[in-house]
């Protein structure tokens, strides 16, 4: 199926879902404070754009910083685990265990350690992004073709030269694939941190709106969060397309 057909099918299914949602809300006369219709959500998302943008800016900063710190930590760790298999054997159970811990359990601890400011949310986002980047990059490094490894070894290439011209280009598609997964779920960490304790952000706005039975504003915040996730996904996809020119 071509890209155009996939886009048309996906858009059609989404519109059908919204039409069913809209019809159900109108026919059943569901109160706004229980389930607002999509038209109401869209109206609030547009009319309350200044308020939503104010809080979305903080959530976006938390996500960007979380991506930066996760990449800064993930790349060296993946390289060390690749070079020293004993380090991989020691850290792999810890990485798996870190993903088995519910993020809701970590959020209160991060609030205690880093306070109600931005850094607790940044580290929450970084924790969620960190795992898929490390795992994918490590898998990419380990999947490098053995014949190319032997060729670089026979030519006497030092490790850093081999890493620059062989291992990193080979693992780059894996790294970007893990980054796409990470940025798409980065909003989860930031929002959960804002739910536990914050003074600004879309998660904070959702909690405040829910307490005032402004469910339409809660859905509008979710819509803006979805837009942030999609934008980051598209941005990484554009970087991937521009960087991996040899794969085409």
TrEMBL record:
Name by which UniProt lists this protein: Binding-protein-dependent transport systems inner membrane component
Gene Ontology biological process terms from the UniProt entry: transmembrane transport
Record membrane topology: Multi-pass membrane protein
Family of the protein in this entry: Belongs to the binding-protein-dependent transport system permease family.
A GO CC annotation given for this chain: plasma membrane
Signal peptide start-end: none
Manganese among keywords: no
High-level lineage: Bacteria, Thermotogati, Synergistota, Synergistia, Synergistales
SUPFAM superfamilies linked: MetI-like
Domain ABC transmembrane type-1: residue ranges: 52-236
Keyword annotations of the record: Cell membrane, Membrane, Transmembrane, Transmembrane helix, Transport
Chain segments annotated as transmembrane: 52-82, 94-116, 122-139, 151-168, 174-196, 217-239
InterPro entries documented for this protein: MetI-like, MetI-like_sf
CDD domains (alphabetical): TM_PBP2
Places the protein is found: Cell membrane
Gene3D superfamilies noted in UniProt: MetI-like
């Amino acid at each position: 199926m071509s890209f155009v057909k996939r886009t048309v099918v996906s858009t059609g299914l989404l519109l059908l879902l919204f039409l069913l949602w809209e019809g159900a809300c109108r026919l059943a006369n569901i109160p706004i404070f229980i389930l607002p219709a999509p038209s109401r959500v869209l109206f609030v998302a547009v009319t309350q754009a200044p308020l939503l943008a104010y809080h979305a800016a903080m959530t976006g900063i938390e996500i960007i910083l979380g991506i930066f710190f996760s990449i800064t930590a993930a790349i060296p760790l993946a390289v060390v685990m690749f070079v020293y298999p004993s380090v991989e054997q020691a850290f792999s159970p810890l990485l798996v265990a870190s993903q088995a811990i519910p993020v809701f359990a970590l959020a209160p601890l991060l609030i205690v350690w880093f306070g109600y400011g931005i850094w607790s949310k940044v580290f929450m986002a970084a924790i969620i992004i960190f795992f898929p980047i490390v795992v994918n990059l490590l898998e990419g490094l380990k999947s490098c073709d053995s014949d190319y490894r032997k060729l670089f070894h026979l030519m006497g290439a030092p490790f850093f030269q081999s890493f620059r011209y062989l291992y990193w280009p080979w693992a780059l598609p894996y790294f970007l694939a893990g980054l796409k997964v990470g940025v798409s779920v980065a909003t989860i960490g930031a929002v959960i941190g804002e739910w536990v304790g914050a003074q600004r952000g879309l998660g904070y706005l959702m909690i405040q709106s829910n307490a005032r039975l402004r469910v339409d504003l809660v859905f509008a915040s979710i819509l803006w969060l979805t837009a942030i996730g999609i934008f980051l996904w598209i941005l990484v996809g554009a970087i991937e397309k521009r960087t991996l020119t040899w794969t085409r």
